Amino acid sequence: MDKDEAHEYISSLLNQSLRVYTTDGRMFRGTFKCTDPDRNIVLGNTHEYRQPSEEERSAAAANASGSSTILDMTSRYLGLIVVPGHHIVKMEAEQFLSQIKTQSA
Amino acid sequence: MADFGVGVPDEIARLSLGQGSAPQDTLPPSIRSEGIAVVDITAKFSDAVKTLEPGAIVKDGFFTLFDSVAALEIMDPKMDSGCSTTEAEVEHLYDVSKSLLPEEVLGIIDQLLCHEMSWHLGYPLSQTLFTSFYVEALSTPDPRSIQEATFIRDGGHDPNEQPMLQVLRAYCLGMLKSCGYVNERIKSEHYYEEEDFVTNTYNRTLLASLPTDAIRDVIIEAIAALKSQRGSISDNLVDALLLRLELRHIFLDAVECPKHMKEPDMAKKPWREGLAILPALKKSHSLASPVDEAFSAKLQRKLASTMPPRPIVQLDFDVAFGHLKSLFEDGLELIDVLHYTDSQCLLTFVSTFQAKKPQPIVYVRTLLQTFLFDAMEVLGSMSIRQLLDDDFAILTMPAHQYLDRLNDEVEAVQDPRYAMAQQMELFRTRAAQPFLDILRTTCQNRCRVRRTLCHLLRDWESLQVDAEEIDQILQVKVKEQPTMHWSSMGSGGVESYSLPLSSWTYLYKLRQMEQIIQLGFELEIYQADELAGMYWYLNYISKSRLHHTERIKSFVIKRVEETHGQPGNPDPLIGTQLQRSLMYTRLSLLDAAVTWELSDSLSCLYTVLNRLKLIKAPPRPYSTDELRYEIRMRPFAPVGLPVLPTFEEFTAGTLQPDTEIDELFEYAERAVEGAKRGFEALSKMTAEESFSVGSHQRWAAATKNGLKSCIATKIAISAVAKAVERSKDLDNLKIKVEIPTPEKAYHESWIVPKIVPLA
């Protein structure tokens, strides 16, 4: 990827909803505002999502009738955050399915 | 009211979240949605950022540096309350459904009481009440009905299964509800976040949606359930718990007292009842056994906040109880403000109430503001016009034609009464805000009182310009005859007009200037070596007030003479109004005189102490006397009259270089003797004479303290005078000067030095 292309790509993500996963297993979902060469990321209007604990998982599994259960992640509102680059394990962008379809069509 | 630098607190307020109830848009969106695909961009993004130059950033055009400062850094243990190094899950630290012993419930309740008082003292909920697992269980998710407000949700649990938990639940519900009231009350009035109180509820509603009566019922049920336990639990414990539930019940009534604004006795009832049970409550605290596990700072990470997690505030029970007690005492005393006598008594009430040491806590102060100003009505029943007219009548316009309500009825434009009604209405609209701001300002914390008064002074300065203009318009309209006015200096007669409105304004302005200087002493703004100068300036201002009051008095007397000269049966109301004004001028004259004389005496005394080098100036490498003078006088610089003394005049007044030490002693002694006589006369005044109906006790105590300050000054003067007389060497007097802190002085605004002999 050359410089201009990279810059364009990052700029195209600005103000998109991103999901950033951190080393401690939490996920942050917010609007992408800013980044730098160290991949530090600033997200606005962020919510934090946390995986259910072991106990909650086993409790839910015990109650469930089928082989799999769906548990909501616990979440809270944080607002503007900065995630340091070295704590990021995964990043995801949200896209509307409808838009992807029209793009490929 | 005038709030300068409005923008800044606003910006700061935005840094913390959750002001008010939960905004809709912050509800967490579901992360599973049909129409949305999630694409992993980790690798592509990482490659892309690698091409950026060091130091380069890619950012949204609207994203600013200020925003970035406010951002919360994830994974920083000092900022990120969700980041936990240990994997301990908060929810499982403590089981809120486990059964508790009565003494444990008592312990938790008393711990909650401590937290509640810490919150009243200015700590955020996150470090106090919201660290309790029980509070957390009751408030999240926000219960929609009283049945839902239980420690364990939807488990088919009967909340009343265990009587002890039922008691705790009732207590917590009552507590949270009253906290909700307190929070709303404080938010609706003027207060200072960061200085006084944190109203942030971190998106919790404090049970706003539950009706108070439902909570009262829960408390009453719990009381009944508790009483039925008498056989199985020791009586002491049952009584102790009952007291606490009763307190919650009373507290709910107390926070609702503003609705009884028109019936002061009803409003007083809960405060009185609360005071009655407090001693027994304190005594039974020894039975409690605290449960520390029921509180955890880790609960903070469940709150909507960008605040880094902070430790739990630990307030000692005795300290907390002391504050609770003074809350009830002050609350009870406060209701007396509703008994309105006249505007000056009201001012005395508010200022002496706020000058109490320690100052009433912020909730009581905001409650006072509510009583004073709620719904544009003073004390729930008076219009601002009534209050202002009352005040004009006392100070400068007793039974004055300008204030005649019938003027409003006149429709003939050429009639002078039409002009009176018009011009007076104009003046009232201009004066209302500055006048009410005096009351509102007094309700702030002491530092803010001084600061805001400095700003307010400018408003009064411009009001005076308006007043002078209106005075002149009216004196032409009514063809007022000038009087020959003899000044107290006896320098011959001057033709002068009564100028009632500008006189009124000027008197308030002078009083505020004095107050600003006096609060400077109380707040320890001045260094020891500056005291001579500041007392000199106070003396200068109070002298102006004395002369001004004499001028007002001469016109009041003129009105009295005019009325007596009139034939026929005079309206008895006119007589009382004139009498009241005379009484007020007498009080004002005496008050100005004691301020003048005592400040004169102290100024002389400090001049001597400075000259004898008993008070040494601290090293000030970057300051000069002139610069410091400029700083000290900055609040007064915009005031046109009285003229600000030049630095040379100030220095001459402070150093008095041409006066020998003996003479200074003589002046100081004569002045303090005069002040003492003045204070003695003041302390003999009745509540009516001193315009302190409803607050006479506090007013009299302050006057007595003034008298004590005079005596202490006399003692200090004679101690220094004797030491000077005894010793031949003025550099070695064998005495030492101690400047007491304002709390140690007899009166906060009279800092009298203590002379201690050196062994």
From TrEMBL, chain A:
GO terms for molecular function: RNA binding. It comes from the Eukaryota. SUPFAM superfamilies: Sm-like ribonucleoproteins. Gene3D superfamilies: 2.30.30.100. Residues 5-97 form the Sm domain. One of its GO terms (cellular component) is NatC complex. PANTHER family: N-ALPHA-ACETYLTRANSFERASE 38, NATC AUXILIARY SUBUNIT (PTHR10701:SF5), SMALL NUCLEAR RIBONUCLEOPROTEIN-ASSOCIATED PROTEIN B AND N (PTHR10701). This is Sm domain-containing protein. The lineage of its organism: Eukaryota, Fungi, Dikarya, Ascomycota, Pezizomycotina.
TrEMBL record, chain B:
It comes from the Eukaryota. Residues 335-720 form the NAA35-like TPR repeats domain. Keywords: Cytoplasm. InterPro entries: NAA35-like_N, Naa35_N, TPR_NAA35. Residues 54-216 form the NAA35-like N-terminal domain. The keyword Transferase does not apply. One of its GO terms (cellular component) is NatC complex. Pfam families: Mak10 (PF04112), TPR_NAA35 (PF25789). It is found in: Cytoplasm. The keyword Cytoplasm applies. Belongs to the MAK10 family. This is Uncharacterized protein. It comes from Trichoderma simmonsii. The lineage of its organism: Eukaryota, Fungi, Dikarya, Ascomycota, Pezizomycotina.
